[in-house]
Amino acid sequence: xxxxxxxxxxxxxxxxxxxxxxxxxxxxxxxxxxxxxxxxxxxxxxxxxxxxxxxxxxxxxxxxxxxxxxxxxxxxxxxxxxxxxxxxxxxxxxxxxxxxxxxxxxxxxxxxxxxxxxxxxxxxxxxxxxxxxxxxxxxxxxxxxxxxxxxxxxxxxxxxxxxxxxxxxxxxxxxxxxxxxxxxxxxxxxxxxxxxxxxxxxxxxxxxxxxxxxxxxxxxxxxxxxxxxxxxxxxxxxxxxxxxxxxxxxxxxxxxxxxxxxxxxxxxxxxxxxxxxxxxxxxxxxxxxxxxxxxxxxxxxxxx
Amino acid sequence: xxxxxxxxxxxxxxxxxxxxxxxxxxxxxxxxxxxxxxxxxxxxxxxxxxxxxxxxxxxxxxxxxxxxxxxxxxxxxxxxxxxxxxxxxxxxxxxxxxxxxxxxxxxxxxxxxxxxxxxxxxxxxxxxxxxxxxxxxxxxxxxxxxxxxxxxxxxxxxxxxxxxxxxxxxxxxxxxxxxxxxxxxxxxxxxxxxxxxxxxxxxxxxxxxxxxxxxxxxxxxxxxxxxxxxxxxxxxxxxxxxxxxxxxxxxxxxxxxxxxxxxxxxxxxxxxxxxxxxxxxxxxxxxxxxxxxxxxxxxxxxxxxxxxxxxxxxxxxxxxxxxxxxxxxxxxxxxxxxxxxxxxxxxxxxxxxxxxxx
Lengths: 304, 358
Prior knowledge:
Helix content of chain B: 40-55%
Radius of gyration of chain B: 23 Å
Strand content of chain A: under 5%
CATH class of chain A: Mainly Alpha
CATH class of the largest domain in chain B: Alpha Beta
CATH superfamily of the largest domain in chain B: Periplasmic binding protein-like II
Structural class of chain A: mainly alpha
Largest sheet of chain A: none
CATH topology of the largest domain in chain B: D-Maltodextrin-Binding Protein, domain 2
CATH superfamily of chain A: MetI-like
Number of helices of chain B: 16
CATH topology of chain A: MetI-like fold
Order of helices and strands of chain B: HEHEHEHEHHHEHHEHEHEEHHHHEH
Number of strands of chain A: 0
Number of strands of chain B: 10
Shape of chain A: globular
Oligomer: heterodimer
Helix content of chain A: over 70%
Radius of gyration of chain A: 25 Å
Distance between the termini of chain B: 77 Å
């Protein structure tokens, strides 16, 4: 009897604790997503927004025009693929930069770890846009960086290249903005590794590379996947960076979506683009999770 | 216990009442950034004993999107004519009570009774700008490039000399208008064949441009990174003021293309859900006074439709043909009309193709 009551109480406490965040997700994620799905089947309003659900004759005005448009006018898919490539490159570069950094922090003495972590998140203390504007100055044609790069290029007889307003600038900033999101989960993972495993491997004659590739890396894969998801998804939808730093060719899917809601006043098509973005992000995260599970199992085997 | 609560409640009620007595009347002005002189606002606040609360938007589409999503609480909006057209069709505006607008006669008749709002039922012209060429005078002279034709923005023959030093507005409507004008069509031409021609012109010129930019080109002109832009007359005016303030060895000048350009007239309108239409009317009438209207022109170099403002405007601005175009130039300026949803879809497709092309 008492055990039953205790169980009841535990269940209630669980709901009390998890209820508010669940409700929050329902109201602020599920509901807007549903509205977006509905909007994608309606017609654009003249004034912006959506055309009335029932037309003059009273018939329901629901159609798949916006979807047909996405799948027939290939230029949109083309921009979409380009965004995927940008997000993928950003994720890989972030991984390559963040891994050594996270490992360094995880292996530093406990005292300095907190300071190093603080330094990683320090950029968040100033506004995102201000940091992008700072990059505009750093990459400008009269800044030291552009002069140095073009000086070296001139040596090899190559013409001067613009750094600002280029795909390069967009990628640099994408990496810069998202790097902490890769470092933190990697650090959280690497910090928990048991050094005894590496010692044991060394005793058994494993080289430094083997110790990393056969032990550390497989064990860190959950951190790698978490970091990759945290970087890839926001990088895929970003519009401010290509708007401010991109050249004439650097339109990404985020810019296209923004255009539909502002300049073109075509909310249904904007919704379709957003849905395609959400679905592909979910699919990719699902794939990563699936791979991650396999990897974790592999890691467990290594650990065992 | 009970008494404590009652005392607290009484105190709270008193505080609220006191607050209500002290709270000033408020006029909510939803305006472009930096689009009214601070001293003008101060004077209006003194005159009406109210407080002006300003919020800002950076383009008409932002304003339209916000209102389409149901935003309320604004008294006055200052949209461009084509957005006024959309707002009228969307039944978002309140008809103006002309009896309260005693200064309406100050507006030049040329800017009244327009096709988008016949009889000025909803709107009163506020200020104007043109979309023209802005350039670094030293560089253009050195390179021997013309500054009075859209060819310098679109023709590779000229662009070769300024490759990577040119920006154009990140706005499909503005850039298509310029390209259509360059081709000799109306800025409001809606023939899809002519749009294709315009898109081809843009695609051919694109490799020479540094960026599509509507946000930072003022700064880039001022520091000398960018030498030539397709931009708004007010912004180019601002870039020159900044260049002078920074003692740069060049000026940023305005070039009026001989093919003609886009004229944007911004209008004062009252939102249908305005909390204080009475204050809004007072504000509109106040802004129609010559002196108040002139202060904006003196601040940002905007065009001015108010005849009574002319005596208060700085002579050097009055002489500037890009701000106060002579009649033959004015005749080639066109206000953009709003597009239909189908036309907007087609334009967006062309625009995306332009942006995605290499």
